[in-house]
Write a structure and sequence with these properties.
alpha+beta, 4-stranded antiparallel beta sheet, two-stranded antiparallel ribbon, 4 helices, 8 strands, about 35% helix
Length: about 140
């Protein structure tokens, strides 16, 4: 590795996993396991998100509460797989439904879950679009 004064980074993240997380999902995308640097998705729908993974938590005007964190983690990881071309965009609706299911498991009220689903269905599409892959920024 050469010494370099240029820092390369991606913007838009505010949380980072301190330990790896395993979340069961209904995403049955292919007969093969998808493996990226921080995300693994098995054909059975098991999502393994590795320690160090960064995500932005609940988006928009949503309040970051404990009953929203695990759902936002899984949702962001699934959207990242779509955005980066590892998962077909046809899985977006299932990813949105998984967000709501996980939030329900974690104790989120029904009315809030309804609003969350409306928000991601109406405004989340661009976050799963490969055209919006997060660019690598540099400093200085």
């Amino acid at each position: 590795m050469s010494l370099n004064h240029i820092l390369k980074y991606r913007d838009g993240y505010k949380y980072q996993l301190a330990e790896s997380a395993v979340i069961s999902t209904c995403v049955r995308a292919s007969g093969v396991t998808t493996i990226t640097e921080f995300i693994t998705l098995t054909p059975e729908g098991t999502l393994l998100i590795k320690e160090g993974y960064a995500w932005d938590g609940p988006s928009g005007i949503a309040i970051d509460t404990k009953n929203f964190m695990r759902g936002s983690l899984a949702h962001d990881a699934l959207y990242q797989l779509m955005r980066n071309g590892h998962l077909a965009k046809k899985w977006r609706k299932v990813a949105d439904e998984e967000l709501v299911r996980i939030c329900k498991e974690d104790g989120m009220w029904a009315i809030r879950r309804w609003w969350v689903l409306r928000a991601v269905r109406n405004f989340g599409g661009s976050s799963a679009d490969p055209k919006n892959k997060k660019p690598i920024l540099t400093a200085p």
